[in-house]
């Protein structure tokens, strides 16, 4: 991506909420944003309980995929921009706690809905 890319410019200083961050599309999107749009302020990733794994477990495993290897070698501090939000896109209000909902309302400037519907 060129340094004056419209995409890079759009995401500069944005705080993003991504649903479906653990799916194929979500992982590709998350890695690409972190690698190419270094000036993103923060990324929240909405995750739910699935297959007997907590959102925390799933979030920790997310960055073990090979698709993140280039990013890890380029910027070992990339995780400082990524935050887990416990929730479920199929639930009312995304299944968010009151505290998490307030954080997202106050901070998020862009939502990318990549969650699959089971």
Automatic annotation (TrEMBL):
One of its GO terms (biological process) is long-chain fatty-acyl-CoA metabolic process. Keywords: Lipid biosynthesis, Lipid metabolism, NADP, Oxidoreductase. Residues 18-116 form the Thioester reductase (TE) domain. It catalyses: a long-chain fatty acyl-CoA + 2 NADPH + 2 H(+) = a long-chain primary fatty alcohol + 2 NADP(+) + CoA. It is an enzyme of class 1 (oxidoreductase). The keyword Lipid metabolism applies. Its EC number is 1.2.1.84. Signal peptide: none annotated. Gene3D superfamilies: NAD(P)-binding Rossmann-like Domain. Catalyzes the reduction of fatty acyl-CoA to fatty alcohols. Belongs to the fatty acyl-CoA reductase family. This is Fatty acyl-CoA reductase. It comes from Zophobas morio.
């Amino acid at each position: 991506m060129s340094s004056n890319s419209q995409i890079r410019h759009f995401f500069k200083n944005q705080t993003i909420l991504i649903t479906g961050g653990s799916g194929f599309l979500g992982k590709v999107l998350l890695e690409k944003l972190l690698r190419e749009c270094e000036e993103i302020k923060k990324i929240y990733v909405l995750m739910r309980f699935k297959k007997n794994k907590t959102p925390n477990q799933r979030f920790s495993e997310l960055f073990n995929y090979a698709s993140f290897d280039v990013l890890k070698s380029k910027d070992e501090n990339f995780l400082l921009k990524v935050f887990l939000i416990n929730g479920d896109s199929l639930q009312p209000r995304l299944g968010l706690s009151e505290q998490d909902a307030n954080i997202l309302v106050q901070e998020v400037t862009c939502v990318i809905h990549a969650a699959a519907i089971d």
